[in-house]
TrEMBL record:
The lineage of its organism: unclassified sequences, metagenomes, organismal metagenomes. InterPro entries: DNA-bd_dom_put_sf, HTH_17, Recombinase/Transposase-rel, Resolv_N, Resolvase-like_N_sf, SinI_DNA-bd, Transpos_IS607. It comes from viral metagenome. Pfam families: HTH_17 (PF12728), Resolvase (PF00239). GO terms for molecular function: DNA binding; DNA strand exchange activity. Transmembrane segments: none annotated. This is Putative resolvase domain containing protein. NCBIfam families: excise, transpos_IS607.
Length: 201
């Protein structure tokens, strides 16, 4: 295995000597010192670092944009434009996932596609306009998943925008869903009681 002096190691990596020393001091790259206190680098350690850096560079930024209904499509387009411009200004390599679906819909194809990419290790950061674009409720659960996967979530707007109409629609969907479950269960019990009574049980 080749052993490099600091100067040769910096050339091998394509970084400055000062940068290499900093990486070694922070234990990002492993090194050792000779009896004469001169720092040396093993080639395999340098190769590991380059592999990690390459993997990081290959990862994507995923822009996620969402609106609840088709009549909000113009808003979705503006949302996408703002996110694209932000990513371009930052120099991010990105892909865009957008969808028209309620923020309380757990079966959204777009959010499932995003999570699949994250679990496959292909994502470095997720870029959104507001927290509720990812989820109307339970954003913290998604945020915890991203943190465990070492994925950064960048929210480009610090102040939440008011989507009163969209929020009202989501609340109505929740009420409709639970009402259906409640009355469905009630109807089932009523039918069961009728069967019991008709059979004299």
């Amino acid at each position: 295995m080749k052993i490099y002096k600091t100067t040769r190691a910096s050339e091998y990596l394509g970084v400055s000597i000062n940068t290499l020393k900093t990486l070694a001091d922070k234990k990002i790259i492993n090194s050792f010192k000779t009896d004469g206190k001169h720092r040396r680098f093993r080639q395999d350690e340098l190769d590991v670092y380059m592999g990690i850096e390459k993997e990081k560079q290959d990862k994507l930024t995923v822009i996620y944009a969402r609106c609840s209904t088709a009549k909000q499509k113009e808003n979705l387009e503006r949302q996408k434009d703002r996110l694209r411009k932000y990513a371009e200004n930052k120099g991010y390599k990105f892909i865009l996932i957008d969808e028209i679906a309620s923020g309380i819909n757990e079966k959204r194809k777009g959010i499932h596609k995003l999570l699949k990419l994250c679990f496959e290790g292909k994502v470095e950061r997720v870029l959104i306009e507001y927290k509720d674009r990812l989820a109307r409720f339970g954003y913290e659960y998604l945020d915890a998943i991203f943190k465990n996967l070492e994925i950064t979530v960048e929210i480009i707007e610090s102040k939440e925008k008011k989507y009163e109409e969209e929020l009202a629609e989501d609340i109505m969907k929740i009420l409709t869903c639970y009402s259906a479950r409640y009355y469905g269960a009630r109807g089932g019990r009523k039918k069961k009681n009728q069967v019991v009574e008709s059979n004299g049980i």
